Amino acid sequence: RLLKFLKSEQYISPNVQFIVPDKSNTLSVLTISIATDTSELELDVDESYELTIPESQIDNGPITAHLEAKTIFGVLHGFNTFSQLLYYKNSKFLLPFAPHNIKDFPRFSHRGLLLDTARNYFPIQDIFRTLDVMSWNKFNVFHWHIVDATSWPVVSEVYPELSEKGSYDPKYMVYTKDDIKKVIEYANLRGIRIIPEFDMPGHTHSIAESMPE
Q1: Most buried of 114, 159, 173, 190 (most Cβ within 10 A)?
Q2: Nearest-CA neighbor of 102 among 140, 61, 138?
Q3: Contact 62, 94 (CB under 8 A)
Q4: How far apart are CA 18 and CA 73, in angstroms?
C-alpha cells in the first residue's frame, strides 16, 4: 500500500520544485525493525518510531533508510513520515533533503475525529477516504456517530424495521453488518480504532418511526 501511494502521489510543492535536482540521491532500501508483536490498538499502545535516512552511502551509492518502532503502529506512523520526505520522479525515489534523523512519538494517546453519519449520511467509500486522511495525519481514533434522532442507518438483523423505517433511504443510505466490518478492518490496518456511538435512551425519534410504543 505504501509503495503504491508513493508512486501515485507525485505532487511537488511550488516551494521546492525548483530545487529538486534530477540527480538527487536515490533510495534503494528501507529496513524495518519492530521490537514487539503487539497488534491490539489499545489506548496506551506505544506509537513511537525512529526514522533514519543518511545523506549517501559509500561512493555515493544508493541510500538505505532505517525505520525502528516498538509496535506495528509506530511503523505505520513512520511510513507516513517517510512518504512525505520522498519525491518520485523518472521511476526513482529521490531524497533531495537528506539526511534525516527523526524520533517521533504522540503527545496525546487519543487523537480523534468525529463523523456524524446519522444527520448526514456518508457512503462507505467516503468513510474510507476519511480514514486515509486521518492516517496520513497520524490520527488514531475514529468516533463514528453512527445513529441519532434524525436517522437510524444501521441495518439490524434482529430488528430490520429500525433502518427500514428510520433511515433516510432503506436501500441506499444504510450500513450493513458487512459494511461495518469493512470499516473496522480498513481502520485497523491504518492504526485507527473505531468508537461507535449509539445514542440511548435519548435521541430516539428515528426508532419511534418503527416502534412508536
Answers
A1: 190
A2: 138
A3: no
A4: 35
